[in-house]
């Protein structure tokens, strides 16, 4: 077990965004998180990465209680994330952006070491042709790869991917999925939030389903796509419900 949450709870005023959520994530697996809009997925990511402190519950990284650790300490432990809205440093080139990631990661790299890590990661995610392009000039698909590269440059043990497939065309989705599976093969544990049902079903070893802040199911992709409660949760969004049933 690399990450464990117990009875996590976080409210915004009267709204309980994450309610009594517990989970255990095994090392070197892909753990998918799905749920309708507003289910609490991003809030849970923010609790895991340390942006928010839960009002109740605890978070453990390899049995170490990290509930009160600030974000930078979690990054040093090896927890890195991408953001739903990609935020590159637009004026800087791709390689400079990734070097920033390397400098703030697990190890205290100097510039030369950071450059080496950045080059490796840029090759790995397929961004080498864009290395000297200003980040602000990239299209969405390349910006998503850059976001992934910046997180990988932290040399994480756990990588949190927040909708890295959103806005990509089917070919780009396939290509990004291949990168994600390669990251897993390299021994990194991945926790991913995704609305694209067939993609998360294909990639994940286990899936946790949230609805209105609560965990309503957890299981293999096949178990989840057969789960009556999950299908009902998605009925407010018939298109997603059909994808879920079709994703069996
Ligand atoms: N900073 C905040 N202040 C107040 N309410 C918030 C805040 N962040 C999230 N919420 C609310 O908490 C609930 C859960 O939001 P969250 O973004 O975690 O859901 P989500 O499952 O990630 O949704 P989506 O799939 O639409 O991204 C929503 O009702 C949202 O409006």
TrEMBL record:
Domain of life, source organism: Bacteria
Segments forming a coiled coil: none
GO-annotated molecular function: ATP binding; ATP hydrolysis activity; L-isoleucine transmembrane transporter activity; L-phenylalanine transmembrane transporter activity; L-valine transmembrane transporter activity
One Gene Ontology CC term in the entry: plasma membrane
GO BP: D-alanine transmembrane transport; L-alanine transport; L-isoleucine import across plasma membrane; L-valine import across plasma membrane
Positions of the ABC transporter domain: 3-237
InterPro entries assigned to the protein according to its UniProt record, in alphabetical order: AAA+_ATPase, ABC_AA/LPS_Transport, ABC_transporter-like_ATP-bd, BCA_ABC_TP_C, P-loop_NTPase
SUPFAM superfamilies for the chain: P-loop containing nucleoside triphosphate hydrolases (SSF52540)
Protein's UniProt keywords contain Nucleotide-binding: yes
This protein's UniProt keywords: ATP-binding, Nucleotide-binding, Transport
Name of the protein in its database record: Amino acid/amide ABC transporter ATP-binding protein 1, HAAT family (TC 3.A.1.4.-)
Taxonomic classification: Bacteria, Pseudomonadati, Campylobacterota, Desulfurellia, Desulfurellales
């Amino acid at each position: 077990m690399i990450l464990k949450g117990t009875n996590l709870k976080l409210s915004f005023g009267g709204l309980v965004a994450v309610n009594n959520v517990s989970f255990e994530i095994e090392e070197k697996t892909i753990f998918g998180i799905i749920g309708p809009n507003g289910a609490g997925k991003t809030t849970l990511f923010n609790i895991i990465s340390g942006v928010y402190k839960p009002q109740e519950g605890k978070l453990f990284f390899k049995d170490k209680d990290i509930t009160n650790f600030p974000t930078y300490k979690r990054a040093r432990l090896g927890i890195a994330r991408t953001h739903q809205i990609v935020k590159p440093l637009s004026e800087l080139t791709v390689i400079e952006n990734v070097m920033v990631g390397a400098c703030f990661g697990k190890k205290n790299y100097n510039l030369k070491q950071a450059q080496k890590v950045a080059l490796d990661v840029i090759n790995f995610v397929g961004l080498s042709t864009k290395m000297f392009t200003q980040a602000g000039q990239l299209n969405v698909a390349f910006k998503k790869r850059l976001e992934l590269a910046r997180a990988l440059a932290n040399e994480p043990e756990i990588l949190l991917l927040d909708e890295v497939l959103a806005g990509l065309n089917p070919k780009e989705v396939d290509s990004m999925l291949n990168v994600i599976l390669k990251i897993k093969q390299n021994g990194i544990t991945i926790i991913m939030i995704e609305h694209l049902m067939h993609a998360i079903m294909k990639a994940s070893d286990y899936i946790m389903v949230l609805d209105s802040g609560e965990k309503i199911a957890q299981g293999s992709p096949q178990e989840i796509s057969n789960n009556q409660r999950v299908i009902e949760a998605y009925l407010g969004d018939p298109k997603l419900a059909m994808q879920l049933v079709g994703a069996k």
